[in-house]
Structure prediction request, 324 residues.
Amino acid sequence: MNQRGPRFAFHDRLPDAGSFLGDVLAGLSRPRKELPPKYFYDERGSELFEAICEAPEYYLTRAETALMVARAGEMARRLGPRCAVIEYGSGSGRKTRILVRALKPVAYIPIDIAREQLQATAAGLASEFPGVAVMAVCADYSRPLALPELAGSGARRRIIYFPGSTIGNLSVPEAAVFLANARRLAGAGGGMLVGVDLKKDAARLNTAYNDARGITAEFNLNLLRRVNRELGANFDLSAFRHHAFYNAAHSRIEMHLLSLKDQRVRIDGRTFHIRAGESIHTENSCKYSVDEFRRLAGSAGFEPAACWTDPEKLFAVHYLTVPG
Ligand code: AVI
Prediction:
């Protein structure tokens, strides 16, 4: 790699389409039909998600970005010099830029399933921060993966950055396993900076996932459009309605696609019967109080080292460390 110009490498480790088909068939075969939310993010899905982040009702991105702007200097001091930042799900990279500007890490390793967006974001970061070695990995970070070699980067510690409250899209037991894997990847002396949406009144949450312009509804339905296009299925999109609500018993927003009629869908030679009023569960978005999340991180072997929240207490960024 050229040491003076942008230092940029791209590693393609995306699983083949077979895992998408297998996950869709398995999800639709369950007594309560479901589809994994990681498949929302094809090119159109990534664009729709960016539009959600701009929607006035979706406070999460604005609250977290403002928190990063206000506290990135303090966060950088806590994390220390010569970090390698490993980001799960790089998205548009807006919050990352704020962190990288303050922290000046030696290396930045974004891992994302959305190939086009990852390429654009990582290349942009590499030219904006020529002092940072950028090694993008196109992969599904929910599965075990090998990282590019960091030995020559001069990094002193690995910091996993997981913004956006994407951890909320895992169930609580899944999040515990995920955090334990992240702790192993960060290694002794490493850490994790993770954005988590806070519990709040149900009305505010319901509004955030039911925006007036219907962008979230379109994002949800786009999953079926993707299954039709990539797996040759025949979902009739006009026969489904977006349904998102706060389930207080589980402290989570649930997103579903509600079938408006009795219908049969064919995928890869299999037929699935969906009754009128039956739904396909497409996403959970769990909400945690600061203490609940600290306990969860502690159960995964992290030490909760710091937590920053915005003045309205909408969102939290936790810094977790691995004992050295
Ligand atoms: C990516 N993730 C944190 C978003 C969320 O809020 O759970 C995805 C999303 N779903 C609907 N709106 C946004």
Remarks:
- The first helix runs from residue 17 to 28.
